[in-house]
Specification:
The complex is a heterodimer of chains A (213) and B (227). Chain A is an all-alpha fold and 213 residues long. Chain A is built from nine helices and no strands. Chain A has one domain. In chain A, helix 1 crosses helix 6, helix 6 crosses helix 7 and helix 7 packs parallel to helix 9. By secondary structure, chain B is an all-alpha fold. Chain B has one domain. Chain B contains six helices and two strands. In chain B, strands 1-2 form a two-stranded antiparallel ribbon. Chain B is globular, with a radius of gyration of 20 Å. About 2% of the residues of chain B have low confidence. The chains are: A mainly alpha (213), B mainly alpha (227).
Chain lengths: 213, 227
Amino acid sequence: MSGYLRDVALLTRKDVLLELRARDAVPALLLFVVSALVVFHFALPADAAELAAKGMLWVAILFTALLGLGRAFQAERQQSMLDGLLLAPCDRSAIWLAKTLATIVFLGVAELVALPAFALFFSALDWETVAGIALANLGICAVGTLVAAMALASRARELLLPLLFLPLAIPIVVGGVGASVADDGGRYLGFLALYDAVFAIISWASFEYVVTE
Amino acid sequence: MWSRNNAVPALAAAAGLLVCASIALIFFWIPEDADQGISQKIFYFHVPIALTAYACFGWGALKAFLHLWRRPPGADLESYVAIHQGVIFGALTLITGSIWARASWGVWWAWSSEQLVLFLVLFLFYSAYFMLRFSVEPGPARANLCAVYALFGVVLIPISFLAIRLANDFIHPTVFTSQGPQMAGSMFFTFCVAWAAILTLAAALYHIELAGKRLDVSLRELRERLA
C-alpha cells in the first residue's frame, strides 16, 4: 500500500510541477472565476437577495472547475503521454487519484482568490459555505477527472465534457447551495460527504476501464 | 414449431393484449377519482411508465456491469438497447407527468414535483450517454466507456432523488408509503395490470430493437468480409 501511496504522491507532484513551470491552468482559472463574479454582479438585479448571490457563487465554482477539468489531461494528450503512464508499473487507479488531487489543488488555489473576492463584492461567507465548497471540491474533482478521461477518448472532447459532467454535478449544487442558504446546513454537508464517498469509490474502481480496452 | 423466432412475436402479442386489457380496466372498470376526476387516470400510465424506465436503466446498468466483469459478447449492445428504451420511456414519463401537472395543478411544469425533476436530470444524463457513445469509434474502448457511464447512471438515480428531496418540499401525492400502497383493491389491481402491460411492452421493444441491431452488426461484418 505504501508503494501505491508513493505512486500517487509522485504522479501528483508531476502534475503540480508541470503547472508550476508552465502556469497553464491556474492563472486562467483565477481570471475566469473573478470575471464570472463580475458578470454575475451585472446579471443580478440591484435589489437581488443575498441568497441569489450565493447561488451564483456555486455556478461560478462549477464552471471554473469545468474549465480546469477540460485541461486536466492536456499534458497527457500531447505526445501520447497517457500511454506512457499506462505502461508504468503502477495501479491505474493511482493515475486517477493523483489527477484528482492535482485538480483539487488547482481548484483550491482558484477558490482562495474567489472566496475573498466574493466576500468583497457580494456578502460575507459563513463557515457552512466554506465547508460545503471544500466537500464539493472533492466530489467535483473525483467525478470530473473520470469524466474528463472519458471525454478525452471521444472525438468531441471539449464539447462532451460539460454534457457528461453537469447532470452528475446537479446533486453537488443542491448540497452546496443548501449548505450555504438553508438554516440547517449540516444536513446538506452530510449529503455532500455521502456524494463524495459514493462517487469517489466508483470513480476509483472504474478508472481502469476508462483508459484501457 | 416453437423457436426463438416465435418468442418475440409472442411477447409482442402479450404486450398488446395486456395494454388493451389495462386500457379497458382503466377507463371502464375502476371508478373515477373523487378529487381529480378523469385526469387522475393518467396515474395508471405515468407511474408504470416511470417504473419501467427505472427497470430499463437498471437492466442497462446490470448488462454494463456484466460487460466489465465477465465480458460476455453482446453485453455492450444489450446495455445500450436497454438504456435506449429507458430514455424513450423516460421521455414518455416527462410528457405524461407534464400533462398530469397541467390537469391537476394548472401548470405544464412544476419544480415541486420530484419525480418530474428526477426524470429531467436522468433524461439529460442519458442523453449525454448517447453523445458519448456516438462520438467514440466503435470497439472495446467505447464499450468500456459506455459501461462505466451506465453504472454512474444507476448510482446517480438514488443520489439525485435524495438531492431533489433535499431541495424541495414534498408535494407529490404519496400513494406508496412504508405501510404499503394507499389504494383501494380495484385500483391496485388495475395499477398492477397497467404496470405489467408497460413492462411487457418494454421487453418486447427491447428484443425487437436488439434483433435489429444484431442484424446490423452481422450485416456490417458480412460486408467487411466481402470488401
